[in-house]
Amino acid sequence: MHDESHGPLKAELLAVALEAAERAGALLRDGRPADLGVAATKTSSIDVVTEMDIAAEKLITGFLSERRPQDGLLGEEGASTTGTTGVRWIIDPLDGTVNYLYGLPSWAVSIAAELDGEAIVGVVAAPMRGETYRAVLGEGAFAGDRPLRCRPAPAMDAALIGTGFGYLASRRASQAEVLRALLPQVRDIRRAGSAAIDLCDVAGGRLDGYYERGLNPWDYAAGVLIAREAGALTGGRPGIEASTELTVAAPPGLFEPLQARLEELGAWKG
């Protein structure tokens, strides 16, 4: 863990991330056509979402290049630079694109800042929820000024678990098999459509736990930090950090049996 000498840097990165996420969130909220979900053809509506996604990433990367020109970048829509400061920004300009397309409120802008490969700042802005979640390594997690804490661990059969599914039919089929086996063993499953928000919902106690296969770093970088700073454990397969293979988040006491069950079910496969 980084020492306290990074305090001013963390504060600066948090301020930059909050402003970038707020600006991008406002662009997406205010720029979405009211009739987007009922556009004439599937292709035209998807194109509009893609255009908004790209516009939001350009806004964020432009803002970051003004404020922190020497930093590295990794963005969903193709931004990738190494930088010279040890700081790298990991950006998902629009997490929950299908929700955005349909006018559902669970979409978000996710921005994380890593220092030497370790996430030290995470911001997830969910404009249609009216909430922005944030965390700084070692300093806790918040929604606005309200501290976030994950729920105490329930027994597995009383746990409300969030998850998500991939776009490929073959992957969805294997994910459905995992879900079929897991569903009778938990209270219920939620599929909200935004990994970033799901991780923040673990942090805030709106979900007991969460797992998903096939996420990219920009999907989970900010959310994993926020969940951890709220007291959750995060990881992938046993002994491995959260990754594209598998991402799991839950409070201590639920994390271990959930992770073990997902391992038994081969949740990382397919």
TrEMBL record:
It is an enzyme of class 3 (hydrolase). Keywords: Hydrolase, Magnesium, Metal-binding. InterPro entries: IMPase, Inositol_monoP_metal-BS, Inositol_monophosphatase-like, Inositol_monophosphatase_CS, Inositol_monophosphatase_SuhB. Its EC number is 3.1.3.25. Its cofactor is Mg(2+). It catalyses: a myo-inositol phosphate + H2O = myo-inositol + phosphate. PROSITE patterns: IMP_1, IMP_2. It comes from the Bacteria. CDD domains: IMPase. GO terms for molecular function: hydrolase activity. Belongs to the inositol monophosphatase superfamily. This is Inositol-1-monophosphatase. It comes from Streptomyces gamaensis.
